[in-house]
Amino acid sequence: MEEEKKGTDYSSEREEIRKKYDKKSKKKKHLSASSVVIIVAFLVVIVLLVLLIILLSNIDLSGKKKDDDKEAVNTEVISSRVENLTGDSSETDTETSRENTYIPDDASAEEIRYANIHMGDTWYSWDLYRPICKDVDDEYFEEVCFIGDSRTKGLLEYSQLPRWRGFYKVGSTAAAACVENEYTLDGAYYTNILNVIDRVDYDIYYVGYGTNELGYGNADKFIEELKVVIDEIKEYHPDAIIYVENILPMSQSYSDNNYSFSNSRALKYNDALKRMCQEYGDVIYLDIASCMRDPETGAALSDYIGDGLHYTPEGCREILKFIRGAVVEKK
């Protein structure tokens, strides 16, 4: 009997193939899940980067807007100065604009423009003060006390003010004023300037030293001595407004022949005075020199200087005129 022919059994091979396939399938699924995680993470990073770029762009745009606003204000100031130089305005510009001075948002364009035109390089904190933007009348000086040397003497005696109050000594320095009994109170007795400051009571003080201290050749020494006077005012009159006058220029010939009292040295001292006022923060640096300085030579205007060091009566009145228009008030 012929044996029945049986077909080949591939079940074991199929099982092995199925197992391999299952492994590959699982591996593939596993890889697909990992890929999804990576893609999602990548997308999240991209989204975060986009958000960061948008945020930074907004900050830059905001900063640019602020800069544009400041530029607009400076443009207005510069435009007004150009008008003055070209004769389109009757007002005369005395100094450069305050492009490097911090000006708060509440300062009006009128205040900024006025300060640039009428106050020279005067410095004060815009956070604490604002310019009055007009000349003060004689009544203003009834609450003012002037302290200084011979230039203060000339300023007051030639001012033509009906009433003024001042304590000064010819040839004095800030240091000498603190120890010399050269100042009288009500004509009763003589004492030093520190005792005077302790006993008087004024709302505003103008301090004018420095010309005689030019002989030191040491601006830092002068500043340290002047601080004694200023600190005394601040201690006994904490609410008072203090103006520190800068050093007026000398005539060209006087400056050339007296190195110790040269205009170049006066400028260095004035820089030190300005820095001192900025360090105090609430003390005003008053640039009276700007109204007496020849813009071409840097020396004193010849029409207003007498002996090369002291000013004529007309010059003193011009200085007072500048002071009238360079007044600030507390905010």
State the CATH class of the largest domain. Answer: Alpha Beta
Counting helices, strands and paired strands, the structural category is: alpha/beta
Segments where pLDDT lies below 50 for 5+ residues? 1-7, 60-99
Q: Treating each run of at least 4 consecutive H or I residues as one helix, how many helices?
A: 9
Describe the strand arrangement of the main beta sheet, using strand numbers.
3-2-6-7-8
N-to-C SSE string, H for helix and E for strand: HHEEHEHEEHEHEHHEHE
Mean pLDDT equals 84
How many discrete domains? Answer: 2
In CATH, the homologous superfamily of the largest domain goes by the name SGNH hydrolase
Shape: elongated
What is the count of β-strands? 9
Strand content is 5-15%
Distance between the termini: 128 Å
Largest sheet: 5 strands, parallel
Helix proportion range: 40-55%
Computed Rg: 38 Å
Which CATH architecture of the largest domain would you pick?
A: 3-Layer(aba) Sandwich
CATH topology of the largest domain: Rossmann fold
